[in-house]
């Protein structure tokens, strides 16, 4: 088959992206906190300790010693109303990093593609909002990243932190530059599913990352396609014979496939340590486990649930549970996976007990609208959904997903168990 090779900067279409699906719990109204400068002799300076703290001082020193105007920081500007750093493309973030483009925006801040003058490579810098709770969360993320870096010797699973510093009251975390997220890729492909052999490779790496984190007693809590990035932006375009052209003149439709299946997980800003108290709500809605919604307390298994939802999405092209409401979400789970166990419903906390009547989910009686009931009825059973999209390995994949998406967290597969499942074990790497 003839293949065209393409490469492009991964995020040059960022402006047209739909709003990123937000994580939970962070977007409470906040009094705007005016940015303060990290001042060193009247200039901005990284004032945090970093892996290369001397590097930060060297940055600043070069500002004075070399006196190169083009290497200086831009004039002081106020942050925007949400505490985001305000910048212009082409200017310096610090004397070491030149801003090329904005590649992403999340709850915590903006991610900028920057040229690192010292290492002579592009890096991705997360410039965190100058608001106390985000600054504190960024410090947690830095600690987690340092731990992961220490144990993930060859840096194959999690994004690698290169450096960090505090710039004009914004914590800046410097990462290796990665490619587009799985979500970006699906979207650019008009939400066409990935082939099952690619899903296998992506799933294997995702679960290896989860197993690695869980071995370190860390729980990611926000696994989603937006937080899984291809290492390389390169892709090939191949004809997609499954899609019928809209008119005879339109010719064959094409779909993209990544040239390499290598991925890494990002965004450790919500990572929890095992010994913490786990009662608060975690995860982005579509990937949230039933025990989280029911307020039963959560642990490692919430990552496994998210991984199950992600694998289904990669096979089908679309998020499995597209909802914004708890009862509808639980009803969707029952529709796809069968009834929720009574022992879980009985233990629902005071927020979730209203979703339960006589030991069962209060559905469809508790539905807020007919559309909601229709949205639930539209969903197929897991087996059918997988068989609609997967041409081979469907039986193994269904069995794996049933293990990852078990309602009761105590009987859900662990990441290590999942990696030993025949879906992974009995197949050689093809991508
Ligand atoms: N190392 C990287 N290389 C390339 N792009 C990146 C990198 N890190 C982050 N991005 C891009 O920036 C976006 C936001 O990053 P990230 O998820 O870390 O921010 P966040 O504020 O914590 O987001 P969230 O709202 O999910 O918490 C990502 O979805 C991705 O598109």
Automatic annotation (TrEMBL):
Annotated TM spans: none
Record's keyword terms, sorted: ATP-binding, Kinase, Nucleotide-binding, Serine/threonine-protein kinase, Transferase
CDD domains named in the record: PKc_CLK
GO molecular function terms attached to this record: ATP binding; protein serine/threonine kinase activity; protein serine/threonine/tyrosine kinase activity
Residues that coordinate or bind ATP: 133
InterPro entries per record: CLK_kinases, Kinase-like_dom_sf, Prot_kinase_dom, Protein_kinase_ATP_BS, Ser/Thr_kinase_AS
Pfam families according to UniProt: Pkinase
Chain coiled-coil ranges: none
EC number: 2.7.12.1
Domain Protein kinase: 97-424
Highest taxon of the lineage: Eukaryota
SUPFAM superfamilies on file: Protein kinase-like (PK-like)
Catalytic activity: L-seryl-[protein] + ATP = O-phospho-L-seryl-[protein] + ADP + H(+); L-tyrosyl-[protein] + ATP = O-phospho-L-tyrosyl-[protein] + ADP + H(+); L-threonyl-[protein] + ATP = O-phospho-L-threonyl-[protein] + ADP + H(+)
GO cellular component: nucleus
Sequence similarity: Belongs to the protein kinase superfamily. CMGC Ser/Thr protein kinase family. Lammer subfamily.
Protein name: dual-specificity kinase
Origin species: Tripterygium wilfordii (Thunder God vine)
């Amino acid at each position: 088959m003839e293949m065209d090779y393409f490469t492009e900067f991964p995020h040059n279409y960022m402006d047209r992206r739909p709003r990123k699906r937000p994580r939970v719990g962070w977007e409470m109204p906040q009094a705007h906190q005016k940015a303060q400068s990290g001042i060193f002799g009247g200039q901005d300076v990284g004032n945090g300790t970093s892996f290369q703290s001397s590097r930060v001082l060297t940055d600043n020193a070069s500002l004075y010693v070399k006196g190169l105007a083009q290497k200086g920081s831009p004039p002081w500007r106020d942050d925007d109303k949400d505490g985001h750093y305000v910048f212009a493309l082409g200017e310096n973030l610090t004397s070491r990093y030149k801003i090329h483009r904005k590649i992403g925006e999340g709850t915590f801040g903006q991610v900028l593609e920057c040229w690192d003058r010292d290492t002579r490579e592009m890096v991705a810098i997360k410039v965190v909002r100058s608001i106390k709770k985000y600054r504190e969360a960024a410090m947690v993320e830095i600690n987690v990243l340092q731990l992961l870096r220490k144990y993930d010797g060859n840096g194959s699973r999690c994004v690698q932190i290169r450096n960090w510093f505090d710039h004009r009251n914004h914590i800046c975390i410097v990462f290796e530059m990665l490619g587009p997220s799985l979500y970006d890729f699906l979207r650019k492909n008009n939400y066409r599913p990935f082939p099952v052999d690619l899903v296998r490779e992506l799933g294997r790496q995702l679960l290896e990352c989860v197993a690695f984190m869980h071995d370190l007693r860390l729980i990611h809590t926000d696994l989603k396609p937006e937080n899984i990035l291809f290492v390389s932006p390169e892709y090939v375009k191949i004809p997609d014979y499954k899609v019928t052209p809209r008119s005879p003149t339109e010719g064959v439709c094409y779909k993209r496939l990544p040239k390499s299946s290598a991925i890494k997980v990002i965004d450790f800003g919500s990572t929890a340590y095992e010994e913490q108290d786990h009662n608060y709500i975690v995860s982005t809605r579509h990937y949230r486990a039933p025990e989280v919604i029911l307020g039963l307390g959560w642990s490692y298994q919430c990552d496994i649930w998210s991984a199950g939802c992600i694998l289904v999405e990669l096979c089908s092209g679309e998020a499995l549970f597209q909802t914004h409401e708890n009862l509808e979400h639980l009803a969707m789970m029952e529709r796809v996976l069968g009834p929720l166990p009574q022992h879980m419903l009985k233990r629902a906390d005071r927020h979730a007990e209203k979703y339960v009547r006589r030991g069962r989910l209060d559905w469809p009686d508790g539905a807020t609208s007919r559309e909601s009931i229709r949205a639930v009825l539209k969903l197929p059973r897991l087996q059918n959904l997988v068989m609609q999209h997967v041409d081979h390995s469907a039986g193994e994949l269904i069995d794996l997903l049933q293990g990852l998406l078990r309602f009761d967290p105590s009987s859900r597969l662990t990441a290590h168990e999942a990696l030993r499942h025949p879906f992974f074990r009995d197949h050689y790497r093809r991508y």
